[in-house]
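Figure 2 data, in text form.
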Amino acid sequence: MTFKRADRTMHIAEYIHTTYFVQPILPLLSKTFITPNMITIGNIIYSFLIYYWAYYNEFIYVALGVQVYLFLDILDGNLARYAKLQSSFGAWLDNTYDRIFYTLLLFFIGLNSVPIILLVLVLILINLYAWLATYYIVPRLRKLKQVQRRSLKKWFIDRGLIIGMDVGTVMIIITICLLFQQPLLLYIILFVGFVIDILARLTELWSNMKREGLR
């Protein structure tokens, strides 16, 4: 979500939605009047229903609703590429609102169900993660001649999958925890997951930069 990859690797949730739900309907959808920007705007409007459910602790609805949001979020980008309807405005709107959505979603889920300090820490971490990935990690990775991945990460990448705390993974964690009515567990997992992933991505970047004499 934070940048356009030249290869065909995908995060796990993105792979599932793209392969089994999005790609089969693209040929039919591309022949209709529906545009990627219409899907994006519709998803933005729909997100307010999810906020409502989250605020009133309707966790089952939130658990299922976020997967619909994720499906539509993946659909608009794939439709844009398939039908050659990419636009800078569409990409900006999609990426900008995604960050707003995940921040507000986690705010409303945790507002009445988790300690405020844990809620604030998770909100800080999810936005710090997005900022680091977009403005620090990715630009420096692009300057490297070759990126050496760690063994577990390389194993997944060799199979076309990326592991980490991307928005799709966060959605899977949200869905599982809320289906079992465990909001506190959700925030604990997110806190630990983001801390580990941030440290892992930074140390991997720094080790590659040091190897190429860029640090």
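Caption note: The longest strand covers residues 10-11.
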